[in-house]
């Protein structure tokens, strides 16, 4: 059995999206000939949403190692609050001990705590252990105004400056680079043309079908809305942001048109946007309701900026009358959350850039109504299309999903592809043990 050391600081019960690839892959590593050793950070040290049920999805035989950290009381004076930075040297030391004792053939970094990527070159030099990077988001940001709010803060600019120094060190020495979006390899190679094309693979997250069984077996409840209140509830769970303004304007333009055409058809309608900002408390900023108010449909829209536990989010999808999935104006945007939306088996409206990989998934599976746009389209034009194909059509119809096509996107299949990449790396490197 080959071994891989997986650096995944955000690990269950932490409910951050960047732990999902590892979490969903763990049940299938053994069948692919790999044993996973997971290196994480103490969840008690991390802020944000925690979902204890996530821990129940981790196979009991998986060995998990927990790194220490510098207490935040010692670093807050320098505005260093990041748990990744405060745990950097602890992870480096513990990782070295694991490598020396367990002798893994490979190291896999699957996290958006990008500064930890530079431990790859460090361990490669010290232990001769090759490593694979998992780019779930861009590390160096060419545009700093995407996401939940304007990112042109001093801290964000400093972080990007650091990324421009550290990224080339990690990327150039990596044995392989995994990307969730097909746009990422070319983006990275533009910065580092000396990195060969064959060192990149595009592999989206998989679909964890068993997660919905947990929702049922544990009788998970959600508190976002009441399915029995006589209203029709459409749900979107995920981030908002300036880069989604176009899709929001298109949607609310169509909703206003529907209200003008037949007010009674939407009077009981409620659109819920949940977890739209990664920030919490007073730092959170609404980016959905202001646009709804511009279009005169604010009374039909409810935005909850706070994120909710993962399985409660799945329950929201299950309780909804219909689902809404919104894409970015960035053609490279890949929404990994599309798989839970499909598995919820509800009427679904998806609005994405025509070049987004999400469109390929939805077209192949026929899992919902897909509205696409490009850089030449106007929001009014897309609104008209949404009105005709969703509001005037039978939006209540459950999609006739092609489940045979969906199998290629399951966590089991994606893990098999991931392990194939691991096998290719150690074969090319001639690695027996680190």
Written overview of the protein:
The chain has 434 residues and is α/β, with parallel strands linked by helices. The protein has 2 domains: 2-206 and 410-429, 3-Layer(aba) Sandwich (Rossmann fold), CATH 3.40.50.2000; 210-406, Glycogen Phosphorylase B (Rossmann fold, 3-Layer(aba) Sandwich), CATH 3.40.50.2000. The chain contains 16 helices and 13 strands. The strands form 2 sheets. The protein has a 7-stranded parallel β-sheet with strand order 3-2-1-4-5-6-7, with helices on both faces. A 6-stranded parallel β-sheet has the order 10-9-8-11-12-13, sandwiched between helices. The radius of gyration is 22 Å and the shape is globular.
Please outline the helices and strands.
Layout lengths: L1 E6 L12 H6 L8 E8 L10 H4 L7 E5 L15 H4 L1 H15 L3 E5 L8 H9 L3 E5 L18 H20 L2 E4 L4 H8 L8 E3 L7 H8 L14 E6 L7 H17 L7 E6 L14 H6 L6 E4 L5 H10 L2 E5 L11 H6 L4 E6 L3 H9 L3 E5 L5 H13 L11 H4 L4 H19 L5
Parallel strand pairs: 1-2, 1-4, 2-3, 4-5, 5-6, 6-7, 8-9, 8-11, 9-10, 11-12, 12-13
Helix pairs in contact: 4-5, 8-11, 9-14
